[in-house]
Write a structure and sequence with these properties.
single chain; alpha/beta; 9 strands
Length: 248
């Protein structure tokens, strides 16, 4: 478990959840996208659900429906904000989940995979694969994975990986862990490698979004705001099905 990342999100938990008004611009100026993503997931999800790194719709119990939900997170303070929602809480690491094989009908990664970096662009890619392998392990055959993420273009992705050592040191001056936004093709290829099929990617559109909405691109730097058109990410929802071993 990455204690540095856990400590950072323990410190950020109160402010993070205080900005959970998803009916308006919300956290990082991306609230409209989060609402659309939560609605898309709710329409197709049921049974036992594992959410890794928080809920797909924070503090909105209606979105949970009749699902039996377990939330796992590195940060105990982040988890504490879900106590009143009647979900099971577990401190843990996406790369090594303390749950049994073939346990869940769905696994959801809500804007978390770009945080699992270990301060390295190269290791970040390996960590995503490990997290997807764990999701595959804990899913029942035919279960579905849901990945809500910010995708970037190939040139931006290449620059991120190349500049990760410099970016990591710069963010480290403020105690902020490195994040790496991955290209959508990387997620799709990694899902296939880990035994998933029926892979689909849907860009998420928000009708009220404006290119001039102010975005907070870095958690931990609330004073840093840039217009949306200067934040080169595309919100996407990626889904896939865990294929039975015989079909691999």
């Amino acid at each position: 478990m990455d204690e540095r990342v856990a400590g950072f999100f323990n410190d950020q938990a109160a402010d993070y959840h205080a900005s959970a008004d998803e009916s308006d611009i919300g956290r990082m100026g991306m609230g409209g996208y989060h609402v659309r993503t939560a609605a898309a997931i709710k329409a197709q999800i049921a049974g036992r659900v594992l959410c890794v790194g928080g809920l797909w719709s924070r503090m909105n119990p209606e979105v949970l429906g009749s699902c039996e939900v377990t939330v796992v997170d590195l940060s105990a303070d982040m988890l504490s904000h879900y106590q009143e929602l009647g979900v099971e809480l577990m401190v843990g690491d996406a790369r090594s989940l303390a749950v049994g094989d073939n346990t869940f009908d769905h696994v959801v990664f809500p804007l978390v995979l770009h945080h699992i970096t270990d301060q390295s662009g190269v290791v970040a890619r390996s960590n995503v694969r490990r997290a997807l392998a764990e999701a595959r392990r804990v899913l029942k055959p035919g279960g579905r994975i849901w990945i809500s993420e910010f995708s970037v273009s190939r040139p931006v992705y290449a620059a991120e990986i190349l500049l990760a050592p410099v970016t990591s040191r710069a963010l480290g001056l403020k105690g902020i862990p490195l994040v790496v936004m991955h290209h959508a093709d990387f997620y799709q290829k990694s899902l296939r490698e880990q035994g998933f099929g029926d892979i689909a990617l849907k860009p998420i559109q928000a009708t009220r979004a404006s290119p001039f909405d102010l975005i907070q691109p870095v958690i931990g730097l609330p004073m840093l705001r840039v217009p949306r058109f200067m934040y080169p990410v595309t919100p996407v929802l990626i889904t896939a099905r865990s294929e039975p071993p015989a079909a691999r």
